[in-house]
Design goal:
By secondary structure, this protein is of the alpha/beta class. It has 2 domains: about 5-90, Winged helix-like DNA-binding domain superfamily/Winged helix DNA-binding domain (Arc Repressor Mutant, subunit A, Orthogonal Bundle); about 125-290, Rossmann fold, CATH 3.40.50.10490. It has 15 helices and 5 strands. Strand 3 (about 200-205), helix 13 (about 210-220) and strand 4 (about 225-230) form a beta-alpha-beta unit. The N and C termini lie far apart (about 70 Å).
Length: about 300
């Protein structure tokens, strides 16, 4: 089959093209190459943006084995494999609004609650990855050591940004929403940021992303301000600019932010654990004040 035909067949097609090649190869190639094929099938969103050396690390094989696997699949090099996977992701990715629209249009089953629970469970099981396990503690260290914490999330991640800011502000000082006064005032807020601060950016999309979130990450990067990017796809334009990236894939047929919420909850818990003395002190003072000022019972 000619390369152009392969591209056409695989664009947005998870049954043929490169995926069929990988499924066939994992049954016929040498054992180390089969491991690589299996890993790419299960982690194609990550594989589309990793180097051969990074794939080798993930699969505990070697760089040479990854290159041989690409050749066995009929590609001139591993870069060609990545380009093919990226084409598939581009055509297959569903923007949040489209996914939400599809959810309303096609879910007619009477056991919708059970279906959503099961899909979310499976999605969370797939959330674990070596990259996330390694980048998560580094991200926590950045946030924990920051003088001030700035958070931005727009459109579908706006609620998550507000949630994260509200929780962190319960036990930490100087936690700000970048767009709390509207996106037109973002730069007014970000001008006060320094290298001692950290920006947490939440971004869901693929292939469409919020321009102002990208702009905020670029603003921070150009000024050597550390950034933690929480996103559902490595194709995010802000990914190369982030200091640490926490990947939260959304592998459900319905619109969901469960993977984002899980990582956000984990961040709050671990930061609170590491700063337990400061956190406990502020919470001990806050509780009685809320009662005194008739905000809570």
């Amino acid at each position: 089959m000619k390369r152009k035909e392969q591209v056409k067949k695989s664009s947005g097609d998870f049954t043929g093209g490169i995926f069929q090649q990988l499924r066939t190869a994992r049954n016929t190639l040498p054992s180390q190459q089969r491991i690589i094929c299996e890993w790419i099938l299960n982690n194609y969103q990550q594989a589309a943006f990793l180097t051969a050396a990074e794939i080798a690390k993930e699969t505990e094989t070697s760089n040479a084995t990854v290159l041989r696997t690409a050749s066995s699949l009929g590609y001139r090099n591993f870069t060609a494999v990545k380009e093919e996977l990226q084409r598939v992701l581009y055509h297959a990715s569903i923007p949040p609004l489209d996914r939400l629209r599809d959810t309303f249009a096609h879910h007619e089953t009477t056991d919708i609650l059970d279906q959503v629970i099961e899909e979310n469970i499976q999605n969370l099981k797939g959330l674990r990855s070596r990259n996330l396990s390694e980048s998560f503690p580094r991200a926590v260290t950045l946030i924990e050591s920051a003088r001030r914490i700035y958070i931005i999330g727009l459109r579908s991640t706006r609620g998550l940004a507000v949630y994260l800011q509200a929780l962190l502000h319960q036990f930490l000082p100087d936690v700000f929403l970048v767009d709390s006064y509207g996106t037109e005032n973002m730069l007014d807020v970000m001008m006060d940021m320094s290298e001692a601060d950290v920006l947490i950016a939440l971004m869901a999309g693929s292939p469409h992303y919020t321009k102002r979130t990208i702009a905020s990450v670029r603003f921070a990067s150009e000024r050597s301000i550390r950034t933690v990017l929480i996103t559902n796809s490595l194709s995010s334009p802000a990914a190369p600019l982030a200091t640490e990236l926490l990947l939260c894939p959304q592998n459900t047929t319905h619109y969901s932010t469960v993977s984002f919420m899980t990582v956000v909850d984990a961040l709050v818990l671990e930061i609170g654990r590491r700063k337990s003395g400061e956190a406990t002190s502020k919470l001990d003072k806050l509780g009685p004040l809320l009662v005194e000022y008739d905000i809570s019972l």
